[in-house]
Amino acid sequence: MWDYKTPGIPDEYFERTEKVPITKEEIRTIQLSKARLKPGFTVFDVGCGSGSISIEAAIQIEKTGKVIAIDYDENAVELTKKNIEKFGISNISVIHGNAKEKILELGKADSIFIGGTGGDTKEIVQLAQDKLNPGGRIVIGIILIETLYSVLEILDNLNFDSIDITQVTISKSKKTTKGTMMLARNPVTIISATKT
Amino acid sequence: MWDYKTPGIPDEYFERTEKVPITKEEIRTIQLSKARLKPGFTVFDVGCGSGSISIEAAIQIEKTGKVIAIDYDENAVELTKKNIEKFGISNISVIHGNAKEKILELGKADSIFIGGTGGDTKEIVQLAQDKLNPGGRIVIGIILIETLYSVLEILDNLNFDSIDITQVTISKSKKTTKGTMMLARNPVTIISATKT
Amino acid sequence: MWDYKTPGIPDEYFERTEKVPITKEEIRTIQLSKARLKPGFTVFDVGCGSGSISIEAAIQIEKTGKVIAIDYDENAVELTKKNIEKFGISNISVIHGNAKEKILELGKADSIFIGGTGGDTKEIVQLAQDKLNPGGRIVIGIILIETLYSVLEILDNLNFDSIDITQVTISKSKKTTKGTMMLARNPVTIISATKT
Amino acid sequence: MWDYKTPGIPDEYFERTEKVPITKEEIRTIQLSKARLKPGFTVFDVGCGSGSISIEAAIQIEKTGKVIAIDYDENAVELTKKNIEKFGISNISVIHGNAKEKILELGKADSIFIGGTGGDTKEIVQLAQDKLNPGGRIVIGIILIETLYSVLEILDNLNFDSIDITQVTISKSKKTTKGTMMLARNPVTIISATKT
Q: In this predicted complex, what is the ipTM?
């Protein structure tokens, strides 16, 4: 269904519902690039939402790799499963539950995505650090000011380097009868770093 | 109702309807500052929409000044009149009709605002040039790429200097149960210049 | 030198030095509008920098009003004085020193601007609250993520309502031989509120 | 030197000079994703600049694919060659010359990148259309308003569908002694489309 080498599956290829926000394709593409994936990698996707990042990561790491997608929202878990089926992906496991507990039961990871707007981002970043192999990458998508601050605050005290903080604002064109206007989407801040 | 010296009446103070877009207060404030108003000025507001710019300008130019507000949309004309009444303003005349015709019937102006997303912006800028007194200011709010280009193209051939092109992107905070997110509004480009 | 009713003195009208950053004119205009000034007001400008906000406020509040400008940076104090002289303003007092101490020695204010990127913004907001008359406005210009968070955190526990958080991103056009490009300026977040 | 599956080579991995602007990594990542590359593809990179897009594309299309990089600026050609050597890439040919002439001498392409800020973008888009295989993708990076307009205007009359217009604004964090500020980069508009 998507046989290109690069991430960037258009949003409209995914099953979507009003209840679960989807990471927009350009944001997703940047997040995937910051994760620096390789075939065979083990990847966690914490707060997987629609599953769009899990699916693009699963394609990049090929069948020898494995994605573990976690969400506490049943709607997200269901939507992720639907999308996995739609794209015919076999190397994603979906876990329904609280990330702070579920992540403890998992093994090591080579890359960890943290999304969602939950208030626990800070604690999850700490847990992610413990699970990441040295050289592994963490990629955090943030929309709340409080989350941004709390992650910034904690990051310096954890074992990360090559810390990158990038705010991305996307506008999309819309044709009207009178011309082309740009519709702004909400800014997302992407923090990425390498486990030392 | 608004007895402050500076523009910046909050949007929610105005009557609004779904049919007529309102220039957001921060954009309006910048547009008013670019117009460099003085008591006694004659001001045109072409494509007056909700009337918010007309009203703020009418306050700044005081009762010795006069605003002429034009819109081809009956809903806009009605809404502008409602807002004039709400704010108790006496120095605004509202004209319903095609700006390209109506502007020809008017006298000279000291400042001219051009808004709306109509396809005629280019021609209206040309007409506005003829109506502006030397030293008078034109302020154009633009959201369409085609309008931006056509105004840029024409401006160099008209009698304007001190041309300023400023794109403004506003985000507003929204409190959610989990924290504060920023909601982006669509970017507006404000072109202003002085008639030579 | 500037005899218009509205704020929006172009940046190039001010004396500037490399050592002292100037609040850009569009940001300044929005900050002034959020302050809701009236003739006769007493205004504090904490972290006055180039003095551009003090000068525009001094014009708005007219000769019956008074601005007190404070900065701990000697270069800023000197530059503010130069600009006061340049614009022929008589109702601004400039204080050199630590805002946290100096503000304690002042009387009540009707509007308080807080600028700069100092680490003490949180404490100064608290002091400003004590100095503001009921109905008075506080306007804070923020560029650091940590400052934004600390102000957000404190604001709910202070006596403020009508809290408004607006991020403003300005781009300015630049003509090249091949066409017009937009140069982005760094985003500024403006928090304003009314003392209850 | 870069053995990850996803694009997103950090800017600092490339040789750079002051004379040749480099497409920033997040912008480059989005451009690559819009190109939808596959192993074996033939890719043109018109206005290759530093060669960063050519190199990332060359990795994605693997050794069975081929990138042809063109630039009229000798400095860009030299820099691209340096980067090709640095990354040990063997499937890029670099052509020095006027794209409008050089592209005529080439065969068909599966994906075409058009960059630079040259005034000829409109004509090059037309030539690119003729060279693209059906289903092939064009990806245009634009920073000038005039170029944006001229491409918009022409696109509807060419054989393209799935037209996507995305403006991307990136801000990068900078640590100061007092906290973290965001530095804005200039917005880039990326237009992509599929040859019908």
A: 0.94
Q: Does B92 touch chain C (CB under 8 A)?
A: no
Place of tokens 């090249």: C176
Pairwise CB contact (< 8 Å): C168 & B4: no
CA dist., res. A68 & res. A106, Å (int): 9
- Pick the closest to residue B17 from B93, B94, B78, B98 (CA basis): B78
Tell me which chain C residues have a C-beta less than 8 angstroms from the C-beta of A146.
Answer: 149, 152
pLDDT at D118 over 70: no
Task: Check B187 against A182: CB less than 8 A apart.
Answer: yes
Comparing A156 with D169, which gets the higher pLDDT? D169
Instruction: Tell the CATH superfamily of the B20-195 domain.
Output: Vaccinia Virus protein VP39 (3.40.50.150)
Q: Distance between CA C92 and CA C80 in Å, rounded?
A: 10
Residue type, D141: G
CB contact under 8 A, B148 and D152: no
Partner residues linked to A142 by β-bridges: A189
* C-alpha–C-alpha distance, residues A192 and B32, integer Å: 42
Query: pTM here?
Result: 0.94
Please write the tens of the pLDDT for every residue from D4-46.
Answer: 877 889 999 999 999 998 889 999 999 999 999 999 999 999 9
Residues A116-128, buried b or exposed e (16+ Cβ, 10 A)?
A: bbbebbbebbebb
Query: Given CB atoms, is B8 within the 8 Å cutoff of chain C?
Result: yes
Instruction: Match 């210009």 to its residue by tokens.
Output: C141
Given an 8 Å threshold on Cβ–Cβ distance, is C60 in contact with B6?
Answer: yes
Q: Where are the beta strands (DSSP E) in D7-159?
A: 42-46, 66-71, 92-96, 109-114, 132-142
